[in-house]
């Protein structure tokens, strides 16, 4: 495998354990800013967090094809470049959660503890849940846009939270507009239906040893991404897993219940 390109990161905190945050599909590292600042505390010494833009997202380079192994390799190279001697607590949500799991399995020497937020080590079949969002993004006439308000008015998404989340990927370069996220790559993956690599779980993990470190598995009670049937597979790969279900939270657990997630991570890191 060729060397992974450098990823864009944001640093929060000045001292304490190293913590890396990985976002979900169409997200960016800064989506974790509130959690990272709370972990760092008022004096910045509670944790040194690195908020990572995964490949094909935010300000990080784009890929020619999607691969969890390549995503994990890019994250590993990035974290080692920041601190070659550190072991990291890695926190990942959804797409970032799968990437974090692959990272821990492939680079256990780099990861001391793992926090997986509302995703399981399994195939979810297809990207059907995201196909509508991808189509909306592709329909937005970038060449006709005049202002961000114009983009918001034209973007056909009724949920204001989802609209704001997706439109964070829209960037202006001079008089033109572009998507920071690699929408074309995601659209091509979604078009494969059940052949989606993003929705899948990489088969290569079956050849790897279980991760020996502690794992905190956070689920939203109102989310369908994790079921009781997923526990055996999770335990097979991560024997030291402990599950926390956050009452009233959806798939976006850290957005719905940030204080609960902060406290859970803080206690987990301190143990």
Please name the defining characteristics of this protein.
2 domains, 7-stranded mixed beta sheet, 271 residues, alpha/beta, Rossmann fold, 10 helices
How would you describe this structure to a colleague?
By secondary structure, the chain is of the alpha/beta class. The protein is built from ten helices and nine strands. The strands form two sheets. The chain has a seven-stranded mixed sheet with strand order 1-3-2-4-5-8-9, sandwiched between helices. Strands 6-7 form a two-stranded antiparallel ribbon. Strand 2, helix 1 and strand 3 form a beta-alpha-beta unit. The two termini are 36 Å apart.
Give the strand order, joined by hyphens, for the main sheet. 1-3-2-4-5-8-9
- The CATH class of the largest domain is Alpha Beta
As residue ranges, the low-confidence spans are: none
Q: Structural class, from secondary structure content?
A: alpha/beta
CATH topology of the largest domain: Rossmann fold
- Describe the largest sheet: 7 strands, mixed
Order of helices and strands: EEHEHEHEHHHEEHEHEHH
Assigned CATH architecture of the largest domain: 3-Layer(aba) Sandwich
Number of domains: 2
Number of strands: 9
Percent helix range: 25-40%
Our Rg estimate from Cα atoms comes to: 18 Å
- Please state roughly what percent of the residues sit in beta strands, choosing from under 5%, 5-15%, 15-25%, 25-35%, 35-45% or over 45%: 15-25%
- The CA-CA distance between the termini, in Å, is 36 Å
Number of helices: 10
Judging from the principal axes of the Cα atoms, what is the shape?
globular
Overall pLDDT score: 95
- CATH homologous superfamily assignment of the largest domain: Alpha/Beta hydrolase fold, catalytic domain
């Amino acid at each position: 495998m060729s060397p992974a390109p450098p990823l864009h990161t944001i640093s929060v905190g000045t001292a304490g354990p190293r913590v890396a945050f990985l976002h979900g599909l169409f997200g960016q590292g800064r989506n974790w800013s509130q959690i990272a600042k709370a972990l760092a505390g008022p004096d910045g010494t509670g944790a040194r967090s690195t908020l990572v833009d995964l490949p094909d997202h935010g300000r990080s380079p784009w890929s020619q094809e999607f691969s969890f192994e390549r995503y994990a390799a890019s994250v590993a190279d990035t974290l080692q470049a920041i601190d070659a001697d550190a072991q990291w607590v890695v926190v990942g949500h959804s797409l970032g959660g799968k990437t974090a799991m692959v990272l821990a399995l492939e680079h256990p020497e780099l990861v001391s503890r793992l926090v997986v937020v509302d995703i399981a080590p399994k195939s979810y079949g297809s990207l059907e849940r995201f196909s509508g969002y991808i189509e909306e993004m592709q329909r937005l006439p970038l060449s006709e846009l005049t202002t961000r308000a114009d983009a918001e008015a034209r973007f056909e998404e009724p949920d204001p939270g989802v609209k704001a989340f997706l439109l964070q990927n829209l960037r202006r370069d001079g008089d033109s507009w572009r998507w920071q996220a690699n929408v074309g790559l995601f659209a091509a993956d979604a078009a494969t239906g059940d052949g989606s690599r993003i929705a899948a779980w990489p088969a290569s993990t079956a050849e790897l040893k279980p991760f020996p470190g502690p794992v905190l598995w956070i689920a939203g009670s109102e989310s369908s991404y994790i079921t009781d049937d997923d526990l055996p597979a999770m335990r097979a790969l991560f024997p030291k897993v402990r599950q926390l279900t956050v009452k009233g939270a959806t798939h976006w657990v850290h957005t719905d219940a940030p204080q609960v997630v902060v406290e859970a991570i803080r206690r987990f890191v301190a143990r």
